[in-house]
Specification:
About 35% of the residues lie in helices and about 20% in strands.
């Protein structure tokens, strides 16, 4: 089986989808000739031409508005927002138009668009290249929200997103593009070529949106994470020696509540980890659901580990970033409660 980085896996998903369906189009800022700022679309314009993979002006609202119009007429746009931090000018189009077309038309129209956007920090990008805005999308009815943690899932989930009849927010943790970063920034990063989840089939396959994956089985405590934080959580479990079950959500909306409930009911303890700001982050929704469905199984308060309630600080990157030390302290706190 081929070994791919997440960049290569994302590109392979778009390549296969474009080859299988002439209605799939790819566009965004610098995605054509240049191949994207992270090279995720490299070679697609040369292979499929400038009418199916093309550059746009620097206008996120224009990119998304155009994609919505194309989708209404039967095309399947897979567009790139260069950084998740840049999506705010398009938030109106995403939430008021794309998310509502099916509802407003009573099912006569759908909006089969995918909005790809690199998300998260860990690259010294500062406050305008490090945000994690997933909670702004999970609050909106009509959107699906996907956050892969590895190349295998990235390809399968992106193909499923492109084939989905409704809008999908596809958030790609940029710190995972080239390797499974576990938060130990002082250590060399292991490349995907040496990780089992770097093995990616070269042909077509899809992973159902809305199904979580248990990355590590355990009985002591459930750790729920997504994106980069999955690898941080696994590192924290290894560092502390706690017998934790680590769940990779993969999809935030729809959410695999059954897997969460089964795990927390078994362990009786839970730690929720995400990189985004703590207050009103998606972790709060997870905690609420666990309290609602697992209250009588809980043996300790649920603990959240997240970013600070501040803009992402360039000068204090590794203090803000929820690393394995912070997650480890949460694990010990829950186990000792």
């Amino acid at each position: 089986m081929a070994r791919m980085t997440m960049i290569e896996a994302v590109r392979s998903a778009m390549d296969i989808s474009m080859a299988r369906d002439d209605d799939v189009v790819v566009f965004g800022e610098d995605v054509g000739y240049f191949g994207g700022v992270f090279r995720c679309t490299q070679g697609l314009q040369a292979k499929y031409g400038k009418t199916r993979c093309f550059d746009t002006p620097i206008s996120e609202s224009g990119i998304v508005g155009t994609a919505i119009g194309m989708a209404a007429y039967g095309l399947k746009p897979c567009v790139e927002i260069q950084f998740a931090d840049y999506m705010y000018p398009a938030y109106d189009q995403i939430t008021q138009e794309a998310a509502r077309i099916r509802y407003r038309s009573n099912g006569d129209f759908t909006c089969p668009i995918v909005l790809r956007m690199p998300t998260g920090g860990g690259i010294f990008g500062g406050q305008t290249h490090s945000q994690s805005p997933e909670a702004l999308f999970t609050h909106v009815c009509g959107l699906k929200v996907v956050v892969p943690s590895n190349p295998y899932d990235a390809k399968g989930l992106l193909i499923a997103a492109i084939e989905d009849p409704d809008p999908v927010m596809f958030l790609e943790p940029k710190r995972l593009y080239n390797g499974p970063f576990d938060g130990h920034h002082e250590r060399p990063v292991t490349p995907w070529s040496k990780h089992e989840l770097g093995e990616v089939p070269e042909d077509h396959y899809a992973i159902p949106i809305g199904k979580a994956e248990i990355r590590r089985a355990g009985t002591g405590v459930t750790v729920i994470a997504y994106g980069t934080m999955v690898h941080v959580a696994l590192a924290a479990v290894e560092d502390t020696g706690v017998d934790a079950e680590v769940i990779d959500l993969r999809s935030l909306l729809p959410l695999d509540l059954d897997t969460i409930v089964q795990s927390v009911s078994k362990t009786g303890r839970c730690v929720v980890v995400h990189e985004a700001t703590l207050t009103s982050g998606f972790g709060a929704e997870i905690v609420s659901l666990i309290q609602e469905h697992c209250f009588y199984h809980l043996e300790a308060p649920i603990v959240r580990v997240a970013g600070w309630d501040t803009p992402y600080p360039h000068a204090q990157e590794w203090d803000y970033f929820p690393g394995p030390a912070r997650v480890g302290r949460a694990l010990r706190e829950v186990m000792e409660a």
